[in-house]
Amino acid sequence: MTTKDISRPVCILGLGLIGGSLLRDLHAAGHTVFGYNRSRSGARSAVTEGFDVSAELIPTLERAAEEDALIVLAVPMTAVEELLDDINTHAPTCGFTDVVSVKTAVYDAVKARGMQDRYVGSHPMAGTTESGWGASMTGLFKRAVWVITFDHLMDAEKVSAHWTGIWKDVCQMAAAVGSEVVPARVGPHDAAAARVSHLPHLLAETAAIVGDNGGALSLSLAASSFRDVTRVAGTEPGLVRAMCEGNADALLTALDEALAILQETRDHLATTPPSVEQLADNGYRSRLRYEARTGHGRSQESVSPMLTSSRPVLRMHPGQPNWDKQLIHAETLGARIEVF
């Protein structure tokens, strides 16, 4: 077995941008993968392109149970609980993961159903403003971070070999599509996602509204800085609501911090002479630290989102003594991991 082998077929529920792109990449890698899509037109399009896809949920779950597939929930948070009940009924022994951008709410729903010994949370930090099967593409996850959670390892007195195998397979799945695996528990993940994923949506929406309020001339003058800062405002509003409302507590902390910075900047602008020196200097240094950590430099953005990465790398063997401590260490460092 190589470091990118997955020990079982993969069944993806929901074939929008993330689920559909995962289906494409796993298929391209030669791995057995099949899926379900609620949209019949999307399912037909996928079948026409040669993919193993159905618009019937129950038969798909029954097949997953027969083949002991790893199930991936690639649906909005609002659809997760109903799907968990369906998995419990029709695929009661299958391991499963999800790709929802908020992890605490999913883990709470899993625990409420007693399913945590079959569940490993995950979240690929990749995407575009588009949605649906038609937005899916190959290569979306190349060098993107894929967060893998490990709360059950910390919460349970002892985890089963079954859960450890599921955890490893989720890591292998992410590696198979070219992602860098970064472990994190659900709380730290949601706190970080609020700062670097969900808050940017609020700021983008705000900037788009302020620009639009300037009328026709403002929109005519808008160029690259306005385009770049408002890019994610083009995301379907229902998806933005699901992300931000589902992570409200952590997002409020990040938003309060942003508002305090903006208020301080406003105060400095109202002085004589006006100044944004502190904001510009601090923001510039923060951006450089981001570039150094991710390799996402300005000269590279038009070529590839992640050409190189300076994240530390830790190698580990799931199930070995003290691997929980290794995962905590990796979480603290923001390190990527390789499993063997």
Automatic annotation (TrEMBL):
Region (Disordered) location: 292-312
KW Amino-acid biosynthesis (keyword) present: no
Every Prephenate/arogenate dehydrogenase domain range: 8-310
Protein name: Prephenate dehydrogenase
EC number of this enzyme: 1.3.1.12
NCBIfam families with a match to the protein in the record: PRK06545.1-6
Ranges of biased composition (kind: Polar residues): 300-311
UniProt enzyme class: oxidoreductase
Family indicated by similarity: Belongs to the prephenate/arogenate dehydrogenase family.
